[in-house]
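Sanity check

After download, print the first record. It should look like this:
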Amino acid sequence: MEASEVFKFMLGGEWKEAHQAIVTLKDWTIAYMNIWLQVLHNVTPNFDVPIEAMWHMVKIADYHRIDLLRLKDWFATWYERRPIDDWYAQYQTLGLPNPKWLLYPCWAFDHPKGFMRATEFCAYRYTHHVGEYNPTRFYDLHLPPRIILKAYLSLVSELTIS
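Expected structure tokens:
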């Protein structure tokens, strides 16, 4: 309970959940909440989850006031186990996740390698503007505008110098 003030008050305070035998956590899928519970109890969580899970993990952390970077190593392992090269090479023809889907999760989980690859793809190989795509209903989760602006300005300065 030390990992989350919300859980601390919910389960050990005066909230109604503290007096219930079963606590229902609404709005979260069991699979995604289970990942958080495993991390909070120092158990290696499942890595076989879709990219959309990353937005759920961020939203759960925000809602329950859990430090998102507790999942930093988990995300890094998840990322390394994905066929990222296939996603980038064939996302349009095979219907694989769009590389733009990785921008926000890589930024949120502080994964510079993934963020660099995603911004590089968007800047040099994508025909539209540099931007992210959120495949979930959590529309409030997106990169701060300054992040995309910095990526754009970096690209423009690089093209101007060459």
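If your output differs, re-run the checksum step. Summary of this record's structure: The first helix runs from residue 5 to 12.
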